[in-house]
Amino acid sequence: MSRIRDNSISWETFNEGLWKENPVFVMLLGMCPVLAVTNSAMNALAMGIATAFVLVASSTLVSLLSKYIPKQVRIATYIIIIATFVTIVDYVIQAISLDLYNALGAFIQLIVVNCMILGRAESYASKYRPLKSIVNALGMSAGFTIALLSLGVVREILGAGSLFGIQLFGDNFQPWVVMVLPPGGFLVLGAWLLLFDWVNQRQQKKAEKQEAHHAS
To answer: What is the model's pLDDT at position 132?
Structure first.
């Protein structure tokens, strides 16, 4: 598989996953963990870090080995690479905190089938050199983690009155229990998607006005 020649690294290489192609708010990838484990900020952060490790590590290895992998088995090979790093993460989390491991449940193993990771391996890491692939993977990882935290923070504050387990309000606070339940995930995700789309539309209108002003 031939590599794309332009391997220059710019801010756009990293920023792509943060904003323009944010895996959650734009591409709507990895929705299972986004909705399932974001009932607390700690779970969201742990899943974000775990996914980031798998994405960066697998992108690096795919980039290094891409010219040696036959086209006929490239997808299967990418899945094996991803599964290897997911297994490492699974054992590390289990060793660090059994409570956190139980809270994340099967969604750690499901990182293997996260379309964001396989998509990066196929469309990006296999075509660019390792350094550029790593920078892009870091941007996508940051975008995914920020999205998870955006949901986890809101759901934990409203649903439990705490943040990272620290109580924020007094005894009189009445938590919105629905926020830590599955419907709360859909409600908060919908609100963030609306906000993200509104900001994007404002930026596009501003850019169009600037272009029209320069043209005149």
So the answer is: 92
Q: How many CB atoms sit inside 10 A of residue 19's CB?
A: 16
The DSSP code for 23 is T
Q: Is the dihedral of CA 21, 26, 27, 33 positive or negative?
A: positive
pLDDT digits (tens, 9 = 90+) for 188-201: 999 999 999 898 88
Read off the pTM: 0.88
Among 4, 216, 3, 23, CA closest to 119: 23
Reading phi first (left if > 0) and then psi (alpha if -120 to 50, else beta), residue 179 is in alpha
For 84-112, what is each residue's pLDDT tens digit? 999 999 999 999 999 999 989 889 988 99
- Contact indicator for 116, 47 with CB cutoff of 8 Å: no
